[in-house]
Amino acid sequence: MLVNIGSGVSILKVESDNCYERIGGTATGGGTFWGLGTLLTKAKSFDELLDLAEKGDHRKADMLVKDIYGGDYETLGMHSDLIASSFGKICPRQNAESDYNEADLARSLLFAISNDIGQIACLYAMMHNLKKVYFGGYFLRNRSLSMHTISFSIKYWSRGTVQSLFLRHEGYLGAIGAFLKGTEECDSDKFSWLENYAGSGSNRTQLTFGKRVDQLELDRWESPLTFCPLLKDPSSYIPDTVDLNSDKEAREYWLNCFEESIENYVNYAIASQPTSDTAEKRATMFKEKFITRVQLLKITPFAYGNLTVRGLLDTINQCLKEFDFPDPYLTQKRTENEYALTCLQERLEELDSLDLKERQKEIIMGVLAGNTFDWGAKETVALMKTGEFDFKQARSRIPARPWLIDCLDSWVKKICNEPYKKIAIFIDNSGIDVVLGILPLAREMLRQGSRLILCANSAPALNDVTHSELVVLLRQAAAICPIISKGLDEGSLKSMETAQGGPCLDLSRLERELANELTTVDLILLEGMGRAVHTNIDAEFVCDCFKLAIIKNRWLAKRLGGDMFSVVCKYESVNESK
């Protein structure tokens, strides 16, 4: 159900893009708040009234349950602080002193109207058996006070059976809808839209001359995107593992973590453009913009909608591009790729010396060791900067089994007895990770007769390998390994782009061409923290799934019950789960 709160309130039941109807409404809305507020206070503008309401204490104007009964009304299940009568204390009473001010009146008025809207919306939702209510319109303005009041009202009157949801840029739903409608006339089926968090504004965005201006910036992706067909239930899929809006401890940690690590991004951005006279200035502007964003999110976590680790990483990436740093780690990736390729032959010979079962175990150990080399993880960055941290050292840091999540034995048993027909691997980092970790795994699967798709980012992010880089790497690896060469020649090994431009993985937005290929896959493998921990750790699939990652963040590892370099080796077979 959509509740649009403008001057009045319209309530629409929405069943699909083309099936919807107006089922009710009320004349008591934003216009009522503004009109009565102008009469009750000296505030003239809508925002002045909202600012005033946020400073007030409605208890000085409203009569509460405890004012009537002296406490909770337990028989009827009413809390003592529940409003019994809006503006009830304003009524003249003998020997009663009036100690309310304009801010108190504004807050009482906001609560009266918001509670009324919430109750009416709830009744319509329950009458039509609808469980989700989306609120839009220019009344809310992303104000936490208004949203909290309406959501409390919905929860109270529905006894928790109806969920209230709020939209960013809710005052411009009509404009955004008109824009999207217009794109249908311009071959909209050939591209998709993604929000650019670096350019989009929040409810607190202002221009230098003091006028508040809302801004929604969209990037056009030059191909259609769609859900991964392997998801068990696409309609309930949520890529993010943790909602930082609701998890205060995690929110405080990650905001501080990204704020403290921003200097690394700045240094790599400057180093990536050594001949530029403006690189340092632009990098400083990037830093200032991101730090300002973090400070805002500490005060107003929901300013940009759902706050997640994925969203923060995407914001960093988009801010870098805004200040013309499209790929700060390009030189680092090339250096690491060249070095890793010189070690590939020795690694393959080492694996070939093992028997089948031990080889499968060591291949997975190699994937985990390779995944340690991540320039987005603060603790491992310190190790890599020494210049002495190599593949063997990373291998030695993998803890003894049993691991934090340990399904290695089940994986080895399966892969030794019944190889897969077609496998999709969503890969992570350049250098040692992809060359000494993923390529030996791919080679082994090719040797067993499997067909492989290596899925890589379409655009740069940190030191993650991109599709264009992967194409070059595979040609170079083919010159070293005949099995990889044969796989490329015969088409049993191919690389495809994911339409992702960040370190995480949103399986609701994949390249359509890749999605079509995935329909015949019987194993999906997700590698790395961004793709298998920050996102998709709980994702369920219609085929077998293997999630592999090294936890390279001490705080996160401890929160999951492990320690630094804890292992996620999560193999899930659809046959075993039945």
Automatic annotation (TrEMBL):
Keyword vocabulary terms for this entry: ATP-binding, Coenzyme A biosynthesis, Hydrolase, Kinase, Manganese, Metal-binding, Nickel, Nitration, Nucleotide-binding, Transferase
GO molecular function annotation: ATP binding; hydrolase activity; metal ion binding; pantothenate kinase activity
GO cellular component annotations of the record: cytosol; nucleus
Cofactor: Ni(2+); Mn(2+)
Record domain Damage-control phosphatase ARMT1-like metal-binding: where: 284-563
Job of this protein: Phosphatase which shows a preference for 4'-phosphopantetheine and its oxidatively damaged forms (sulfonate or S-sulfonate), providing strong indirect evidence that the phosphatase activity pre-empts damage in the coenzyme A (CoA) pathway. Hydrolyzing excess 4'-phosphopantetheine could constitute a directed overflow mechanism to prevent its oxidation to the S-sulfonate, sulfonate, or other forms. Hydrolyzing 4'-phosphopantetheine sulfonate or S-sulfonate would forestall their conversion to inactive forms of CoA and acyl carrier protein.
Protein name from the UniProt record: 4'-phosphopantetheine phosphatase
Protein's organism: Schizaphis graminum
Name of the gene encoding the protein in the UniProt record: PANK4_0
